[in-house]
Every structure is written in C-alpha cells, then in structure tokens.
Amino acid sequence: MKKRRFRWELYLIHIIIALIVLLPLAFALISSFRPLDEIFKFMSPVTWKTFIPVELTLEAYMSLFTERGFGRIIFNTFYVAFSNVIFGLLIGSMAAFAFATFRFAGKNILFLLVLVTFMIPPEVVAIPLYSLVDSLGWVDTYYGLIVPSIANGLVIFLYRQFFLDLPNALIESARMDGASWFRIYWSIIMPLSKPVTVSAALLIFIQQWESFMWPLIVTRSKEYRVIQVVLSDFTTEYATYWNEMFAAAIISVIIPVVILLPLQKFFVQGISSTGGKE
Q1: How many other C-beta atoms can be found within 10 angstroms of the C-beta atom of residue 239?
Q2: In this protein, which residues make up the domain named ABC transmembrane type-1 (predicted)?
Q3: For the chain, which terminus, N or C, has the lower number of CB atoms within 10 Å?
Q4: Strand ranges inside 114-161, DSSP E
C-alpha cells in the first residue's frame, strides 16, 4: 500500500514538473498562431480563450520568411552548426587519439590545459578572441563564426576517455601488419566510436545552435545573423512583435528536438559509457 502511494506521489510530482516546463512552451506555440493584438487580450481573467486561439493565423510565420528573411537565418545557423560538427569531430577525435595513444613530453600538462578550456566561461576570452579575429579580417564572416569554436575541450575529453578503454591489442596488431597511424585512427578506432561520436556531434550542434554572445559580437550585418541573435531583434522602440518572437522561438526549439530525439539512445550511451563497444 505504501509503495503504491509513493508511486502515485512520484507521478504527481513528475506531472507538476512537466506542466511547469511545458506550459510556457505551449503558451508560446498557441500565441504564435494568434494576431499580435490578441496575444495578451485574454490573459485576465483566465478562460478557455487564454489557451485556445479565437482566430488562427499564420501571419507570424509568413512574416518571418517573407519580411525578416528567416530562411537565410536558418541556413546560417545550420551552416555554422554543421561546419563546427564536422571539423570539431575531426580535430577533437584526432587530438584525443594522440592523448590516448602517444607518449610525449608535457602530455599531462597539455591535457590539463584542454580541460581548463571548457571550464572557463566564454565571456572571459571574448575580448581577446575578438581582437584576434578582427586582426585576421574575419569579423562579419563565416570564418569568424566557425573557426574559434572548432576546437572543443569537452569533445577531446569524451573521445580520450573512450579511446583509453579500447584494447591496445587492436593498435599493436595493426602496427605489426604495417598500418599507418592515420589508417589505425580512421579505419579501426573511429568505426568503434559511434556512440561517443553521436554524443559529441549532438553536444557541438546544440552548443552552436544555442550560441548567442559570440555571434552577436562577431557579426554586424544581417547577412550572417544566426537564429539566437535574431530572437532579440523583435523588440523595437515602439512595439514588441510578440507573435513573431514566439514563432521564431518555437522554430528554434523544435529543430534541435527533432534532431536529438532519434539519436538520444546513442547520446546517453556515449556520455555514460567510458568505452563500451557495439
């Protein structure tokens, strides 16, 4: 009896937490289909009209793509995120392979510096990083958005921990057969690293998709704006376009969720394991 009661209490707590998390998202979704002048019209008193639109309209979504160039913004965000995923996985896995396989002077100190890089808040290095990017002429370019974020200390750490659990016999037998280090890395180690690769790719993608401060600093024109920066552009001196802001926010939330859900099994497996193989 006590077990059943505890179970129902636990379910009730989960339902309350889910409502706290989902209600703001539901309100944003509903409001994105309302005309601008009706968004806060039915907030007090709270009735069924608060949660169900009286008049459904796609005006906010149409305005995003016809007037605000949201198609270009989504392209920029995808381009920056996927470029970081591809180059970040390549550089991170190669660096981790070196840390896990080779012995060289200062290896532990260098790895300690790698760990420090993802513990330091990005705000600390924003000004010197901007000075460097500006001196290279990369301000307001894709290079400025992509290159500074390619090397990711957390990705290197995840790959290194995974590689350390792989049996040394694989590498030793491949070396005896005359395989080069790159072939061992590319043809033997990486095919065994699918779970951690998916986890690292999702971490990089979500980090870049949600990035706001650095894109705001390094871009000046609308041509290179990404989605999180644009979300701050719906407030003007005279009005706030709440319906368009909610529509853009819903798009910015749905896309990562759609990508993450089918891969969540690999994501959890790659994060929780320290070297499990399929």
Answers
A1: 9
A2: 74-263
A3: N
A4: none
Domain 69-272 has CATH 1.10.3720.10: yes
**Degrees, nearest 5: CA angle 144-117-81:** 40
Query: What is the per-residue pLDDT for 3?
Result: 59
Across the range 192-204, mean pLDDT stands at 91
What is the residue extent of each domain of the chain? Answer: 69-272
Hey, CA dihedral for 77, 79, 85, 87, is it positive or negative?
negative
275 in Cβ contact with 162 (< 8 Å): yes
Say what the pLDDT of residue 277 is.
Answer: 41
Average pLDDT over residues 99-111: 92
With CA atoms as reference, report the closest residue to 247 among 72, 81, 70. Answer: 70
Q: Give mean pLDDT, residues 68-88.
A: 94
